[in-house]
Amino acid sequence: MIDEFRLPLGDIVSDGIDVLTETFRPVFDLIRLVLVALYEAVEFVLMSPPFWVIIAIAAALAYFVKGWKFAVGTIVGLLVIVGVNQWDNSMASLALVLVASAIAIAISVPLGILAAASTRASATIRPILDFLQTMPAFVYLVPALILFRVGVVPGIVATIVFAMAPGVRFTELGIRGVDKEVVEAGHAFGSSPWRILRQIQLPLAMPTIMAGINQVIMLSLSMVVIAGLVGGGGLGSDVVQALSRIDVALGFEAGLSVVIIAIYLDRLTAALSGKRRSVWTPWRRKASPTQAAPATAPAPAAATTDAPVGASL
Amino acid sequence: MSSTSSVSVKNLYKVFGRRPKDAVRKLRDGTLRSELGQHETAAVIDASFDVKKGEIFVVMGLSGSGKSTLIRTLNGLLEPTSGTVTIDGTDISGIPAARLREVRQKKVSMVFQHFALFPHRTVLDNAAYGLEVQGVPRPERLRRARRIVNIVGLDGWADKYPSELSGGMQQRVGLARALATETDILLMDESFSALDPLIRREMQEQLLELQAELGKTIIFITHDLNEAMFLGDRIAVMRDGRIVQIGTPEEILTDPANDYVAQFVQDVDRARVLTAATVMEPARAVVPLSAGPRGALRVMRDLQAGAAFVLGRDRTLLGVVSDRHVMRQVKSNETNLSLVINQEHASVPADAALVDLFELAVESPLPIAVIDDKRRLLGVIPRVTLLAALGNVPTNTTPTTVMEPVSIIPDAELDAMLATPEHTLTAASNEGTLA
């Protein structure tokens, strides 16, 4: 008896996806078009100049947010990528990561704000995040493939879904962690909730939110390889190729390129979260060229945990 | 409400929990706070008071007595469960959020226990925050904020961040932020409790100075009775959500409403709280200057007093005469009493604290005269009264005349005493009062 019974959960989801595909075909086509356009635009920007221009810009950025050591490390690391002939693949992957992360952040930060503002929203969002975060990443690829067909888009969509959770969680945590009395002070002086969010909660939560953004980017990178499975191109396709051909050399070179980009992006965003005062609150006029106040929370330890290698660039 | 009260609270209840309205009904019907269900907590129960313009109204109670909840209903940070809060004639309970924000911007500002400064803003930008919210243009609000920052004594620190300041200085920023909005009403929630005792005293004194200068209406929350006594024009004592007594510091000290308040006030330094005006007694041995030596002598003899205060027109205190000198005048048929008036006697203003009277009381043979700013005699403080006030012993069981310097000159010996003119006034009256 028990042998015959089977909960048809998978079939239900599958049918649901079918219905979704049939009914909202134009919507998904539109999303697909937009994502392709975004991806190609970013890819174009990264690929059209010669590699040394991009390296120079990356190094300048590194110097600006952290210092000359980071800049030198950036140059060396990126030259290694060029040296193993993975530059174009890396830029394609980077474009995918940037597009996916940007969209994931654009969705997750407002969701986090909502969750922080309302306990009910938080109670609704939390289990969904748990679901998204623990579901094996590969699983997202299947419906994404059906909805968006082979190419870079299912990769981006799966990446967004997979990478979103920490963005929401850290934003909620950061805003809820802002001193209650300080928020109360905002209310007591007659500020609107919007002004309190903009002038008090977000700036004070920024180190935590930046740690979340850092996590989003790291998770996006980890999805790049998986996106290669569905024709995402870039480093992912080389890794998948290496796997199918048991090509250790190609696998190592493509993998190392992922590592280098990951470390660069991690250090860059981690440094940004530490520098929040000058970089992330542009509406605040710099009263004096003071250093960040000593009370500024050091970049949360979580910011660097995903760095695949301990060595700093 | 009267036009002079700027904050008026009527039958205010604040209950947290699932069914607050039910809890209020039960409380009205006489249910005790402790008998409410587990799901409801009554923080404020049936509070009513009026705060007059320019007054420092202190709400005092231990933690959990509901004072912080009470102050948060005054600017709508918490909505009362029942009852009304009226700010400057506007009932703020249940008004739309936008109107409430306007009240907070224009009428009421607040200073917090843990300062609640914005760590990402400079001192100046912190102070300017309220003005910024009001939409005051940047140069204007910085100018006004800078003025206030200087007033609270932070000149030179305007461009620092709060984390670079000490606790006392941080709270000055908190005070500056509240003052800069130029609201009439200032809510202060345990504002000095997180400071060191010395800094706290300094801040209290500064607050009184500012209050004298700016004439704000201040509602001050504290758990520190000495602070309440020092700052408050009137004090509301809260216990378990209820206001158990409202009165001036002297009233609370001398006439506690119940054992709880009495127990609370027993450790207060009474000498610092009580003023000359509260303990003084009516002066009996007074003579108008126009009564002449004979009149003076009659008064002193009737009261068995060795000396009397001489009053001019409008009860102006001219000085003291002793029976000995007056008798000499009577003997020599002199009629001008002013010739023997001794002006070197102890006198204090009505608001002098008792702590300042001891030295005078030790040095002065006569009761200390309490005078107003036009030197009119309001009353006197004999030493016994001073001691009784400190010990909180009622003085009305002993006739005050006994406390005047008793005349040691029996009627029959008048002539005999007149025969020894070398006897000085001070020597004689010293013996009299020390007896």
Which terms would index this structure?
heterodimer, A: 313 residues, mainly alpha, 14 helices, globular, disordered C terminus, B: 435 residues, alpha/beta, six-stranded mixed β-sheet, 19 helices
Radius of gyration of chain A: 21 Å
Main β-sheet description of chain B: 6 strands, mixed
The low-confidence parts of chain A are: 276-313
Q: Look at the structure and give the mean pLDDT of chain B.
A: 82
- SS-based structural class of chain A? mainly alpha
- Enumerate the strands of the largest sheet of chain B in spatial order, edge to edge or round the barrel: 6-7-8-3-9-10
Rounded Rg of chain B? 28 Å
SS-based class of chain B: alpha/beta
Q: What shape does the CA trace of chain B take?
A: elongated
Mean pLDDT across residues of chain A:
83
Distance between the termini of chain B: 55 Å
Overall helicity of chain A: over 70%
The proportion of residues in beta strands of chain B is 15-25%
Overall strand count of chain A:
0
What is the helical fraction of chain B, as a range of percent?
A: 25-40%
Beta content of chain A comes to under 5%
Describe this structure in words.
- The complex is a heterodimer of chains A (313) and B (435).
- Chain A has 313 residues and is mainly α.
- Helices cover 78% and strands 0% of the residues of chain A.
- Chain A contains 14 helices and no strands.
- Chain A starts with 8 loop residues before the first helix and ends in an 8-residue tail after the last helix.
- With 435 residues, chain B is α/β, with parallel strands linked by helices.
- Helix content of chain B is 37%, strand content 21%.
- Chain B has 19 helices and 16 strands.
- In chain B, the strands form four sheets. A six-stranded mixed beta sheet of chain B has the order 6-7-8-3-9-10, sandwiched between helices. A four-stranded antiparallel beta sheet of chain B has the order 2-1-4-5, with helices on both faces. Chain B has a three-stranded mixed beta sheet with strand order 11-12-13.
- In chain B, helix 6 crosses helix 7 and helix 14 (292-303) packs across helix 15.
- Chain B is elongated and about 85 Å long.
- Chain B starts with a strand and ends with a helix.
- The model of chain B is unreliable at 397-404 and 417-435 (pLDDT under 50).
- Chains A and B meet through helix 9 and helix 10 of A and helix 3, strand 6 and helix 5 of B.
